[in-house]
Amino acid sequence: MGDKPISFKDKDGNFVSAADIWTSEKLEELFNTLNPNRKLRLAKEKEEK
């Protein structure tokens, strides 16, 4: 067995790549959900620049 990309099925049952599912916006939302302080830290770092 080799490494396989994580795949998901769309509404029609076809496999789609994880890269198509997890866009940068969805990843940002996920990271902010998992770590609520992240959004505050990023805003603070942006202010300091």
Q: Label the overall shape.
A: elongated
SSE string, helix = H, strand = E? EEHHH
- Cα distance spanning the termini: 47 Å
The strand line-up of the biggest sheet is: 1-2
Give the count of structural domains: 1
Instruction: Indicate the low-confidence ranges by residue numbers.
Output: none
The share of residues in helices is: 55-70%
Counting DSSP E segments of at least 2 residues, the number of strands comes to 2
Q: How many separate helices?
A: 3
| Oligomerization status of the protein chains | single chain
Summarize, please:
The chain is an alpha+beta fold and 49 residues long. Helix content is 57%, strand content 12%.
Give structural notes.
The model has no long low-confidence stretch (mean pLDDT about 80). This protein is α+β, with helices and mostly antiparallel strands and about 50 residues long. The protein is elongated, with a radius of gyration of 16 Å. It has one domain (about 10-49). The longest helix is centred in the last third of the chain and has 13 residues, at about 35-49. It has helices at about 20, 25-35, 35-49, and strands at about 5-10, 15. A hairpin with a 5-residue loop joins β1 and β2. The chain has a two-stranded antiparallel ribbon.
